[in-house]
Amino acid sequence: MLRIFVVSDATGQTGERMVRSGLVQFPEAPATVVRRGNVRTPEQLRAIVQEAAGHDSLILHTLVSDELRRLMLAESRAQGVDAMDLMGPMLDRLAKHLKLRPQEKPGLFKQLVEARSREIEAVEFAFRHDDGQHADELSRAEVVLVGVSRTMKTPTTLYLAYQGWFAANVPIVPKIPMPPVVLSFPSERIICLVMESRRLLALRRVRAEYLRIPAKAYASLENVRKELRHSERLCAKHGWRQIDVTGKSVEEVAREIVVLLPTEEQARHPSWQG
Predict the structure, then answer these.
(1) Closest to 239 measured CA to CA, from 100, 146, 131
(2) CA angle 151, 156, 159 (to 5 degrees)
(3) Is the dihedral of CA 88, 90, 95, 96 positive or negative?
(4) Do domains 2-98 and 114-267 have the same CATH topology?
(5) Which residues are within 8 A (CB) of 127 and not within 5 positions of it... i.e. 6 or more apart?
(6) What phi, psi does 266 have (nearest 5°)?
(7) Which regions of the chain does DSSP assign to beta strands (E)?
(8) How many DSSP H helices and E strands does the chain contain?
(9) Where are the domains of the chain?
(10) How far apart are the C-alpha atoms of 100 and 218, rounded to whole Å?
(11) What strand order describes the sheet that includes 167-171?
(12) CATH of segment(s) 2-98
């Protein structure tokens, strides 16, 4: 029976799928697939070639390290094992046409897939937890934005989500108590967004006109100032940090938020370029 060794410095899943796709063309073929993933050292590689040499074997590898690919070629020839490089030719062609050198870092594709999966989850989380919805599920949030109406909570939450952060936002409304889960949430992960009163008033008037809602209470300077003072008192009482978003872009606000978060939260996002 032919033993097909799939060797990779990552998981080896891609190589195995390729092999099994090929084997489908050979019904009832006397072959078995042996996957060897996370091969990162010469010692590991030599041991696999030695194992293959004792059987009717074929080695198919997706090693991204040029050093390991060269070693595989030398060792397989020395041991009389048939080996085929599935990754090298493609990398060489890409490098030639792109006029760039490959990073030769194992597992980058897996990392990319995981990052994309996290981003999708984070965006779904942000939509589900926008404007105080499902507040009882906030335990998974990495940051919670609070603030009175029209202080950029939703767009900032979504921007953070598209960067992979699990973010939620909860409105501050006078005479309506904050959800208990928010009050018990770690204060260092709650950021209150505030805005200069006249700028906030202008935004509320536009919204009131668009939604055709009474502007007297919602979009009056007196009421806006009262709500901002209320949010300041809540921040002082619970130790929440504030960010003035007046005249700032969503990207600028997001950068300021990330800087204020605990270092362990930032460490979970090494690719954050905010």
Answers:
(1) 146
(2) 165
(3) positive
(4) yes
(5) 158
(6) -65, -35
(7) 2-7, 31-36, 57-61, 82-85, 143-147, 167-171, 190-194, 241-244
(8) 12, 8
(9) 2-98, 114-267
(10) 57
(11) 167-171, 143-147, 190-194, 241-244
(12) 3.40.50.2300
| Under 8 Å between Cβ of 183 and 237 | no
Contact yes or no for 45/92 (Cβ under 8 A) = no
pLDDT classification of 55: cutoffs 50, 70, 90 = confident
Q: Is residue 273's pLDDT more than 60?
A: no
Asked whether the predicted pLDDT for residue 169 surpasses 80, the reply is yes
Cβ atoms of 130 and 154 closer than 8 Å: yes
- Paired with 266 in beta bridges are none
The full 3-state SS of 4-17, as one line of letters, equals EEEECCCCCHHHHH
Is 126 in contact with 161 (CB distance < 8 Å)? yes
Packing angle, helices 42-53 and 66-79, rounded to 10: 30
Alpha-carbon distance 71 to 45, whole Å?
8
Q: What is the pLDDT of residue 115?
A: 55
**Considering all CA atoms of the chain, what is the largest pairwise distance in Å, rounded to the nearest integer?**
87
Amino acid identity, position 5: F
Q: Per CATH, the architecture of 114-267 is what?
A: 3-Layer(aba) Sandwich (3.40)
Model confidence at 162, in pLDDT bands (50, 70, 90)? confident
